Fold:
Amino acid sequence: MNEPIAYFEHDADMGIVGRGKCIEEAFEQAATAVFAMMTDVAHVRPQASVAIEFEEADVELALVTWLNLLLGQARSRALIFGRFQLRRDGAPPKVGDRRSGPPEEVGTFPSRGIETSGAHWSGTAAGEPWHAGLERGVEVKGATLTGLAVSERDGIWEARCVVDV
Amino acid sequence: MDLGRLTEINPWCYALTLLPGEARAPVRLYADAQLLRGMDAKVLEQIANVARLPGLVGAAMTMPDAHWGYGFPIGGVAAFDAEAGGIISAGGVGFDISCGIRCLRTNLDLPTIAPRLQRLADLLFRAIPAGVGGEGQIKLSPGELDAVMRGGAQWALRHGYGVAADLEYIEERGCVAGAAPAEVSDLAKRRQRGEMGTLGSGNHYLEIQVVERIFDAAAAEAYGIAEGQVLVAIHCGSRGLGHQVGTDYLVTLAKAAGRLGIRLPERELACAPIKSPEGRQYLGAMNAAINIALANRQILTHLARAAFAEVLPGAALETLYDVSHNTCKAETHVVDGKPRLLHVHRKGATRAFGPGHAALPERYRGVGQPVIIGGSMGTGSWILAGNPQEQNSAFASASHGAGRAMSRHQALRRWNGRELIHELAANGILIRTRSMRGAAEEAPGAYKDVDLVAEATEQAGLARRVALLRPKACVKG
Structure:
């Protein structure tokens, strides 16, 4: 198996990759790749835990939503995360079927009058408030739809996208 | 970039050749062959995709500093007509909504500040919250945050940050209309709680600069700058709120495009018609984020003034201009001899109104809008002046920066942050940062030659060079 986290080239920003034996694990590693750009995650103590929940049937949009909810929660609570867990319930997502389904709304975003349905994702992120002892990397603004892909090969799932720095 | 598919219009402007059966609007790339060859092939792919979006007016364009972005290329410009089914795209604005540069002119020269530069850099570094995890002193209640989203820099002024004259030299006098705080998610609002008056990270900076050379005496006089004069540049945007608006609406607009049957060449071009519910919601949220950015740069201006006053009593820092380079703005442009209201996306591109434009302050109306091209921390920056529409055919747009020549990942492999800071100090440039990784990623060698970008901007008729600035001290995010 390749390394659980990796990076790929992008001119202005950064491409991140997370790999695992299932989609959830790949998403968790993708989150690690993102937060490792901000600090050395090995030194982040799991002092505070935040629950993340959302609805998303489209597996690629689920990756972007997961990462952006983590970034939003971290910033709104002045935390840096270092550990991640994710679980998915409901119908298994279909890779490559992203354009065929009805439009979905992400549960934790404000309702815009679009019906919510599809896979339910729930997870946690653990970390601590920023302090002087933590290495400062670069701030990640958000995950984008560029270079976005979730795929499986030889039993290993890979989740990737470009994040805006 | 392979120039094989490009046709030279003139040495500073190229067109993408239309393939048989290809349906899209024209594509124009403003740059010379050297700059174009240095660009990633993705720039061409992305701007060609933009040219397929509904309601595009004229050409989809890139500026001389263009590089690979998400959705739109950075340095991308595209105008859409709402009445013709035109769209608005979150990827055409960017996550750091209204990221821009505030330039301040001082009454100081280099010999005056040189003996105090170390102390000044240290004090600015302490006064300006910068870098990942940096929090500001201003904590706003939800009601107050709504007021900032509606009031922008005008809100900041009402709360003691700055002087009335600042507003005259900020686009839209520091406050855009049409902000809709109700369309901004709770998470976006929470994300801003500790981030008013913070610089951010990445390519953001507060820099002390000196005017090295004047190229256009009349414009320089109007802008109040002369060789040897010290300037201050503040580069940052709408912080956490803007980032969250961008991420929220990227998904919302991607779904809207599917629901409304808009065929996107790439999903990353997520967009919705300007007149659709989602388009209107994004427009309202984006305008709210623009006002956050304008307020943020106003607060940082105030903090910079306080730091200068402590080290150099009598120092005066006046706003030369504040210009955003990640926006979508409703503007009237003459197209085929008729005025049309267009939504002009500038993703990593600066508005560049020419002489006589009614939106310009009286002082600059004779010479055109100041256009600020921010360079790297080790090379230089430029001030240019906007040209008349007869010369600028890019909906009054121009370059915004040097543009990256290599990825952050490549830069990390090539440079060590600590060593780089020592090297720059040896060359008389003081860097203050908490992030050695950030310093390495922002190495001057990771950027294109900003002088070539400024020259190409002038030769392409987008704007004309007024002044070259050299960095002396830089607080990096």
Summary: Chain A touches chain B through 52 residues (CB under 8 Å).
